[in-house]
Amino acid sequence: MPIKPGTLTAKGRETKGRIVAAAARLMFENGVADTTVEDVRAAAGVSNSQIYHYFKDKTALVRAVIEYQSDAVIEPHEEWFAELDTMAGLRQWRDLVVRKQRELNCRGGCPIAVLAGQLAEYDEAARLQLAHSFARWSQGLRTGLLAMHANGTLRAEADPEALALALLASLQGGLLITQLNRDTKPLETALDAALAHIEAHT
Amino acid sequence: MPIKPGTLTAKGRETKGRIVAAAARLMFENGVADTTVEDVRAAAGVSNSQIYHYFKDKTALVRAVIEYQSDAVIEPHEEWFAELDTMAGLRQWRDLVVRKQRELNCRGGCPIAVLAGQLAEYDEAARLQLAHSFARWSQGLRTGLLAMHANGTLRAEADPEALALALLASLQGGLLITQLNRDTKPLETALDAALAHIEAHT
């Protein structure tokens, strides 16, 4: 039976983490619907009783994968969020995002958006969890833009929340079109337009 | 065995169209991976030999669904594309897009993007077909912006192709965040930012 997080031993946490990492990789590579608990069990190299000890069913695995992918996508950017309070900082972040896609050969798109496309209409709890992940992302971008507003870089009448949301939308739409075309140009164009729009409010 | 399009009778075209419409609905509602040929056959009310007469396998059905959804999404906008050559025309189109999402209670997102999220990494032919659908969309937006450039509404140094691509990215990203939050605000914010960016080039 599934056990509560706080009660895991170090070995238990390691095993559970290995299962989630395997599930995230398989669901990213093969899609959520085509990934079975048995596939995850085999890829993680654990027994049947072990996997069901931590996850009562595939739904529980999907929940854990959404958290895992959200952390994996957002955490590396967290150090950047504090620096998104100047146009130069925003442009460096833009270059980082584009470089990352180039390294991935524009494959995969945004892991949170991919899960959203596969789950939002079929699993209401997953939709809410994914909306929360986007809110975390958006919050990170807002931090910098609110700081730019507070320190006077953005004009008083600018709406930093709206600018952050528009930047997030340009990022997501740009990533999707870049993924489909295996070309970073759409992402670059989308982010450059969003940054120019922000700069127009300085 | 599958037959060539030109050789279909009116009745054959009707049957084939009914199968594709059923497949599109089921793949939109339940996801591509969870839709079987048998599900489509039952929903379309055709026999086993009929469905395999038109589609040799699920892959062939997916191809037809991508075309069907692309036409369904793009064709109603085509009459608009010709009017996207003024800021007022662009704003009317923005209102139309937002109203449509409100009517749908923000469910479903963009049908082409949803297929992209489910297929782009798992089916290379589908990825190319979906990239082509996005190019058709983009071409429609470009038509208006190129006209605005040609008639001097957009300044000479503006890049109408980049503006069209940025608008498409804002639309897609805005639709995704609107779908996840069941709220049209993200879509409105994203489109308003993209239109303000275009207007800054007038």
Report the sheet-strand fraction of chain A. under 5%
The biggest beta sheet of chain A is recorded as:
none
The number of distinct structural domains of chain A comes to 2
Q: Count of DSSP E strands of chain A?
A: 0
Q: Give me the secondary-structure category of chain A.
A: mainly alpha
Give the helix tally of chain A: 9
Envelope shape of chain A: elongated
Most extensive interface, chain pair and sizes: A-B, 49 and 49 residues
Terminal-residue CA separation of chain A: 56 Å
Order of H and E elements of chain A: HHHHHHHHH
Overall average pLDDT of chain A: 91
CATH architecture of the largest domain in chain A: Orthogonal Bundle
According to CATH, what is the class of the largest domain in chain A?
A: Mainly Alpha
